[in-house]
Task: inverse folding
């Protein structure tokens, strides 16, 4: 129960909210309140009920029972637009942008400025420029199609779109997960301004340091229940993690083994591509986890794609166990034992409407086939093994993979590639938007795979993760590797200093190569 | 500013390609034609282009919303059959009566004269619009995929057309036929305006064929406002990402219904003109099918993505004109008409390939699938 003082000054109050999906409990008797002029963090593992909570507040789904009050009067929103009309605006994790429409179109999509009943393109463009300027992102041309923007810019557009609706209650659901570090700062400044104006802000993030930096108050959810709400500084990070997972965790990261003799697995020499990758040389040995760090958009993703045969016009040399390879396609890369867990699991990692079982075996059909036909017995055997190995929480293997939570979906992507017995595993920010518990399972799994002889190249935007998981971290800047950090050098200070390339930063601004 | 122009050009490369392709083909045609660059040739071409251009516009709207309308040819045919009853222009009106399997129904009579013709045009266009509206409602409220829904309703509309005109027949007012299918000067002379078209200020435009003027008027008065309306924007949004459009609070159902309704209106315009041009109604099933397929080809040549979200009905008009110009070539070069489908197919492939040339420049193959 929220305490009495909290309820009195609250802007939004939920009482006794419950919701079930096809018999599965998503929320149970949730009481919750948040105030104007406060940033309120909502914490919990994936599947804790955070998403359902937000969807109910934003009018995407209707609760089975319970009541919602906004600014003193009882409300229930039948659609997202009804919620918007009442000043409740949500920035969703799944972007709500139309890729074929321009930035300006998207920002004003719900209520465009009009003249004589028709959309006034010029006013709409001015509005877009204004809103983008408000969050400090004037570099986005409002005429561009959203399709042609990189993910980080799209998220900026999404935020501008939400701002344009003049929110009274703003909900951010992992809204900074794809932003570059520079943009995150701008978004923080914008949130501080909104807070000063008296907007109530609900903030959902899996990045603890963001929550610590921003939130005035936090609520923890677990298994569809509201566990506790506390003010900033009343609970330590360890306490919070404890509340979220409700069980003890020994260490966040598995121990790194002492390094014995290393057998070189992957060697990259002078790899260049399209002004995004600049003479990159890197070695990864069997049993090693090598991190790729640096600011977002410095070529880390391109490097992984180049190794996986996705990019055309790559120059330089790639050798796997001493044999030079030139992967021309993902299929070719797969055949030499390379696996890639891609950036966007929903579009590149999974076929969402297909079943969990189909997704699991899709990359290793050769291994379970007899001639042209898939051997059903071997298939079922392989699926069972994969689910057990990664402890994927599923209903039935025949269910659509879209029914799983984000963490379990990512496990399916990883399991799919492990079934190909890869020698080299490329990971593109695999823990983005995943809950703490699953993250730790993934860390353990990575170490286990390395111990079994795989070479792992791991890109992450989370410095903490790089320090905790990696034997060595290569920091990229403007398409080059500027520094490799190892052992005691592997500290946050060193990573940040190298990421900003402090020696050469005066030459040109970060991200310029990505524009 | 230059940046903006470059962005717009890149985003409309499909339409630009279609316009260029048409311009080149049409210039070549006029050079090769013994009476090239004359009003007479232009008038003839306009008459041949109009119906397909309307159907191409009709097809564009559902395609923009990620649908496909297989009934546009059927709606055209059905409206044409209605027109062959309602636009006879008989001075004392047209008696209306139905013969349903021997059951005789008298429905009074349709007024004659000019007012009767104007009313008839309104009724015909309303019939087409209603047919489109029904398509939209079945797609939205029946939750049936557009391709199947319109396949079925198309058969129904053809059925109605056959019921109305089991054999080709009927009649269209001769003045109406003359006024609509010739130059502006002939139009003015027929309806007795601008000193019967002899006014001196009128001379510089008197050579322009009426169908082209109609095409431009319909594009400017119907399509352009629609594209700039909230509903039109919603059609593009639905075709681009339906989930995102819903989450943005757009009227998705209304947008889809509007897309099919507008398609019905455009197809009705096409059917009306075809009837006026041929002075009869004809429930020609192969012709309906051919028009439907050509409308899809026109949409593609005109730079509209079959996946929805990008493109324009203006591009489709040029797509239709490209297809038609190809058939003109057969007349002047004396090529066996049986080869026509082959050449049309090759041009379609070529046009689509030009649009896809960008693929060769993509350096990140992942972008091909986005």
Result:
């Amino acid at each position: 129960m929220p305490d009495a003082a909290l309820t009195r000054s609250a802007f939004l109050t939920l009482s006794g909210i419950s919701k079930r999906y096809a018999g599965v409990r998503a929320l149970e008797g949730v009481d919750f309140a948040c105030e104007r002029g406060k940033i309120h963090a909502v914490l919990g593992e994936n599947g804790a009920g955070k998403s359902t909570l937000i969807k109910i507040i934003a009018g995407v789904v209707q609760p089975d029972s319970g009541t919602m009050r906004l600014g003193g009067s009882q409300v229930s929103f039948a659609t997202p637009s009804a919620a918007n009309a009442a000043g409740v605006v949500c920035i969703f994790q799944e972007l709500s942008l139309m890729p074929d429409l321009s930035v300006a179109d998207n920002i004003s999509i719900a209520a465009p400025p009009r003249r004589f009943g028709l959309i006034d393109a010029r006013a709409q463009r001015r509005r877009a420029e204004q809103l983008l300027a408000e969050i400090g992102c004037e570099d986005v041309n409002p005429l561009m199609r959203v399709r042609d923007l990189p993910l980080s810019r799209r998220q900026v557009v999404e935020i501008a779109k939400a701002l344009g609706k003049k929110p009274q209650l703003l909900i951010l659901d992992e809204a900074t997960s794809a932003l570059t570090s520079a943009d995150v700062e701008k978004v923080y400044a914008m949130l501080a301004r909104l807070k000063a104006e008296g907007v109530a802000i609900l903030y959902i993030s899996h990045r603890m340091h963001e929550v610590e930096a921003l939130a005035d108050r936090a609520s923890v959810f677990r298994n569809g229940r509201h566990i506790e709400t506390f003010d900033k500084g009343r609970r330590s990070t360890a306490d919070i993690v404890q509340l979220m997972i409700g069980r003890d965790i020994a260490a966040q990261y598995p121990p790194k083994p002492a390094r014995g003799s290393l057998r070189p697995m992957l060697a990259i020499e002078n790899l260049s591509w399209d002004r995004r990758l600049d003479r990159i040389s890197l070695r990864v040995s069997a049993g090693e986890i090598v991190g790729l760090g640096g600011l977002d958009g410095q070529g880390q993703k391109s490097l992984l794609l180049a190794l996986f045969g996705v990019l055309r016009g790559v120059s330089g040399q790639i050798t796997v166990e001493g044999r030079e390879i030139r992967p021309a396609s993902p299929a070719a890369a797969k055949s030499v034992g390379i696996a890639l867990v891609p950036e966007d699991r929903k579009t590149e990692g999974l076929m969402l409407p297909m079943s969990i079982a189909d997704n699991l075996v899709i990359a290793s059909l050769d291994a379970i086939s007899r001639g042209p036909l898939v051997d059903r017995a071997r298939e079922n055997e392989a699926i069972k093994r994969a689910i057990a190995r990664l402890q994927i929480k599923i209903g039935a293997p025949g269910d659509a993979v879209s029914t799983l939570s984000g963490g379990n979906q990512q496990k399916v992507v990883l399991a799919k590639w492990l079934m190909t017995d890869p020698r080299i595993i490329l990971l593109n920010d695999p823990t983005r938007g995943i809950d703490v518990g699953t993250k730790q399972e993934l860390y353990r799994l990575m170490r286990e795979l390395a111990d079994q002889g795989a070479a792992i190249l791991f890109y992450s935007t989370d410095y903490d993760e790089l320090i905790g998981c990696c034997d060595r971290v290569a920091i990229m800047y403007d398409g080059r590797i500027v520094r490799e950090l190892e052992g005691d050098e592997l500290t946050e200070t060193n990573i940040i200093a190298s990421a900003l390339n402090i020696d050469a930063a005066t030459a040109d601004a970060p991200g310029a190569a990505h524009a | 500013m230059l940046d903006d122009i470059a962005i717009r050009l890149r985003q409309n490369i499909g339409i630009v390609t279609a316009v260029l392709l048409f311009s080149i083909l049409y210039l070549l045609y006029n050079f090769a034609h013994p009476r090239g660059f004359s009003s007479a040739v232009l008038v003839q071409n306009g008459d041949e282009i109009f119906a397909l251009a309307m159907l191409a516009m009709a097809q564009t709207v559902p395609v923009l919303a990620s649908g496909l309308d297989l009934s546009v040819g059927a709606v055209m045919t059905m409206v044409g059959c209605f027109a062959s009853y309602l636009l006879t222009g008989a001075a004392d009106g047209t008696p209306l009566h139905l013969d349903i399997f021997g059951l005789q129904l008298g429905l009074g009579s349709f007024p004659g004269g000019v007012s009767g013709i104007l009313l008839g045009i309104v009724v015909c266009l309303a019939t087409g619009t209603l047919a489109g509206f029904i398509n939209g409602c079945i797609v939205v409220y029946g939750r049936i995929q557009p391709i199947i829904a319109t396949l079925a309703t198309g058969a129904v509309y053809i059925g109605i057309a056959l019921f109305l005109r089991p054999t080709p027949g009927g009649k269209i007012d001769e003045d109406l036929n003359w006024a609509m299918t010739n130059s502006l000067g002939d139009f003015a002379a027929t309806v007795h305006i601008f000193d019967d078209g002899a006014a001196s200020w009128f001379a510089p435009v008197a050579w322009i064929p009426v169908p082209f003027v109609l095409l431009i008027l319909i594009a400017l008065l119907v399509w352009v406002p629609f594209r700039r309306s909230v509903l039109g924007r919603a059609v593009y949004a639905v075709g681009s990402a339906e989930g995102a459009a819903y989450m943005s609070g757009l009227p998705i159902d209304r947008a889809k219904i509007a897309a099919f309704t507008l398609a019905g209106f455009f197809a009705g315009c096409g059917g009306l003109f075809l009837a006026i041009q041929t002075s009869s109604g004809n429930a020609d099933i192969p012709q309906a099918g051919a028009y439907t397929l050509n409308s899809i080809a026109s949409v593609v040549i005109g730079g509209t993505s079959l996946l929805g979200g990008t493109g324009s009905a203006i591009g489709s008009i040029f797509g239709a004109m490209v297809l038609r110009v190809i058939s003109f070539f057969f007349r002047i070069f004396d090529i066996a008409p049986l080869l026509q489908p082959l050449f049309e197919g090759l041009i379609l492939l070529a046009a689509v390939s030009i649009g896809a040339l960008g693929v060769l420049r993509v350096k990140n193959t992942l972008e091909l699938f986005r």
